[in-house]
């Protein structure tokens, strides 16, 4: 068998391009694996460098003069005359007088109010169709629902609005209008394989992170053409997933090894009897914006007035300076925290000021109730801020170490910890190491070593 070559003869296939997929791609790029990457399920906002399997047949939206060429703002959705569009930083609504006719969902960050999906309701308030918009402002797909709210089919359009692909959710067939030819595929797996053949990718080593369609594709490809790797990024239940057992028992067509990218999942798989020689624990190479300076500035981001123990914490730690930012107006209740000399409030904070705060502060408190804003916890992590949270307010378990989560009814313990880390730079650095270990942060050298050692196992 030929030597496994990830740098020059591989392809990355995502089922959906989510946060863990993004981190995997960035890590592989960092060590020189500059191969094609594609996502099967496309939300219309894939970054440059990740191709949409469906979108590859729809043409080049960026060259069309018939669409905005940028994401569509919420009040730019086309509606019948006299219908009204309203919106806030969470979502938008479309009304015909008193009747709700549609709901607008935004892409992240939501406060920019850029349209990703519009649901349309019938007279009974049931969703009957769903319009999908992309980063060029084009209506690129439409999902149709039956009277019971079940998906029937989804059509994909080119920049001129012509129907190119129809996916039937009942029969699972996919119809492709390709020039003067009409091709019908039995299922999504057949369609993805056709995409790979059209683009000359079917003989490459496949790197994938899902045991659904990407795994089915791997199993259908020619055994002699490639050597594939599963990057497992999901939790593990009470049993090893059935398709994973196929790999672990050497019954897979092309996949022999599994990189597990969650610590809990790795330990659970071993406990369930997975052979250790088949599993490889692997984290991510994070792209940090800055290094922690062991300072005394603390950041809190919230759109809620309910910041747990805000008065108690800020009053107990006068040596620290707390920066509390919101992208909306602040309530009178929250603004009272600003009465302390060591607190600065930022209602309706500008993006430039928020960027400065993430760069300036060395600690982040995830202690606001209700939703997270501006992906604050992940941004804090990538700015090398030491993050602490209450269990009841925790928004992101990936970047907050288990050791750094406190019960909300025990604020004094968190206060004591903040006092200790800000008085001892060496201890603060140790705590940062704990945080990075919990998030499976890898050095570039170690990540590359694990990948290269796996290549030698084939």
Defining traits:
globular; seven-stranded parallel β-sheet; ten-stranded antiparallel β-sheet; 458 residues; 26% strand
Strand content: 25-35%
Main sheet attributes: strand count, strand direction, barrel closure: 10 strands, antiparallel
Q: How are the strands ordered across the major sheet?
A: 4-5-6-7-8-9-10-11-12-13
CATH superfamily placement of the largest domain: Glycogen Phosphorylase B
Distance between the termini: 8 Å
Q: Mean of the pLDDT scores?
A: 95
Explain what this protein looks like in three dimensions.
With 458 residues, the protein is an alpha/beta fold. The protein folds into 3 domains: 10-36 and 201-281; 61-185, no CATH class; 297-438, Glycogen Phosphorylase B (Rossmann fold), CATH 3.40.50.2000. 25% of the residues lie in helices and 26% in strands. The chain contains 12 helices and 23 strands. It has a 10-stranded antiparallel beta sheet. Strands 3-2-1-14-15-16-17 form a 7-stranded parallel beta sheet. Strand 21, helix 9 (376-382) and strand 22 (386-390) form a beta-alpha-beta unit. The longest helix is centred in the last third of the chain and has 14 residues, at 425-438. It is globular, with a radius of gyration of 25 Å. The N and C termini lie close together (8 Å). The model has no long low-confidence stretch (mean pLDDT 95).
